[in-house]
Hints:
Number of strands: 35
Structural class: alpha/beta
Low-confidence stretches: none
Mean pLDDT: 84
Shape: elongated
Largest sheet: 9 strands, mixed
CATH topology of the domain at 91-217 and 596-615: Rossmann fold
Helix content: 10-25%
Strand content: 25-35%
Oligomer: single chain
Number of helices: 12
CATH architecture of the domain at 91-217 and 596-615: 3-Layer(aba) Sandwich
Distance between the termini: 36 Å
Radius of gyration: 43 Å
Strand order of the largest sheet: 18-17-19-20-25-24-23-21-22
Amino acid sequence: xxxxxxxxxxxxxxxxxxxxxxxxxxxxxxxxxxxxxxxxxxxxxxxxxxxxxxxxxxxxxxxxxxxxxxxxxxxxxxxxxxxxxxxxxxxxxxxxxxxxxxxxxxxxxxxxxxxxxxxxxxxxxxxxxxxxxxxxxxxxxxxxxxxxxxxxxxxxxxxxxxxxxxxxxxxxxxxxxxxxxxxxxxxxxxxxxxxxxxxxxxxxxxxxxxxxxxxxxxxxxxxxxxxxxxxxxxxxxxxxxxxxxxxxxxxxxxxxxxxxxxxxxxxxxxxxxxxxxxxxxxxxxxxxxxxxxxxxxxxxxxxxxxxxxxxxxxxxxxxxxxxxxxxxxxxxxxxxxxxxxxxxxxxxxxxxxxxxxxxxxxxxxxxxxxxxxxxxxxxxxxxxxxxxxxxxxxxxxxxxxxxxxxxxxxxxxxxxxxxxxxxxxxxxxxxxxxxxxxxxxxxxxxxxxxxxxxxxxxxxxxxxxxxxxxxxxxxxxxxxxxxxxxxxxxxxxxxxxxxxxxxxxxxxxxxxxxxxxxxxxxxxxxxxxxxxxxxxxxxxxxxxxxxxxxxxxxxxxxxxxxxxxxxxxxxxxxxxxxxxxxxxxxxxxxxxxxxxxxxxxxxxxxxxxxxxxxxxxxxxxxxxxxxxxxxxxxxxxxxxxx
Length: 642
């Protein structure tokens, strides 16, 4: 018992030195015998011998019980107890991570996994007065049991999902520095496999406990994306869906317009769960696709908005007339104006989204200064140098991006390398192409500076670069110097530049991705554009640049659905937002392979385990009883042992 006993006041063990007292009394007690003459001692010798032996045994018993009495009293004063706690001052510090991501909407034994976990947390009696709770989107510190219940009832699903690494980093920050605290981190999740390593760090400062919430079925049907194209009359919308069921042959889908069903169709497995809808072009179309699925609900609907797109305004400045830009910047998407050098109206620069300097040999100071001011206000510039470019004049303009033309190289080069990851080409090419006739240049300029390459020569030198809102060719592209304008690569290049400098409204935006939109509005002083989403009003980041307003939707807690841009309470633009489909594949980690951690199927099993550790069995009363028993034995021996 002493091997498992703990003592609240071990300093009282010094009282064991009191054992010396009965020992000294035993060894130094002197008995005086009175001598009486007797006639015949023959019959008394045996009695005398026997009496002395009995007396010695009696004294040893008395000594033993006195020592046991003192030992029992001393141990009783040390307050012995049995417990799994290190000491009486130990206490539990509990932090709970509750996964409220969309995948926790799957159905388990007690309904939706998140709601089932919430009900368990509400019913349980935790072995601590204060609890810390954090989810994927909120943190709640030092909650009483009643406060915890109120918060749990109001927890909703979120599109956010923090990583395993972030969970442990946050827990480590939230735990106190109290060395007497027994720290327990409880993770309640379905532990969905996100194709990331599920690495549990080795942490000695707190215990890790995993509560695995498992769905009854790992089946979910969901809409993945929309693809939208158009002709002169209609929009063609292709809807794509998916499932992780091996047996499902079809999925029913309905098309809504302003919350009213207008068409229905079926997504068949043999067509990869894809179908197409044609919608006539209108001023505005707020639509939604909806499928029926009993698993996760967040990915059953997909919102989109078809709006008339603003045209991109382009100014081309030439020394002589050309027509290849007009063939690329067509009237259905662009407004292209061409000026010769002597026709420039500098006052209208701010009305253009892109200005092209097309092979001008000498730039005037007035043109340079106006272009720099235009660029600093957010305008974009595309420069194609002239064969006889005066480098000093061009370098004055491009020096705002710390770029510099140096030598003019007379060496024929092929343009062979395309940066397909550049925003110019990201939405132009569906796949990387290599089997095209490489264009060439006869002469080019060497360029120094930090830049983002778009097209390169075969030796790795740059042909087309970007530095913020400045695009720059390093060689003339006229037919005398190059066949670039006859190459198939010119159309996606120039078209991509034109589309990249103006962020037109998209049919839908994904929440969580960085998104921005350019609007053809000139805000007055004090004007603020607001966004209405889920009946809440937010103010997005907005910048007034020349003829447009750039709006960013980052760091706004948006919900999936239709939204509206407001100016003075009037709707100026419609938007649609959808959640990403990261949670839709119901695949899970095998947490049983994790070492140095505890895993449970139910939360109550872990809490019961903690409560059993908290139980303290006080043993001092037993030792007080032992002391009384030993004292009683001593009295009985003194009284009845002769």
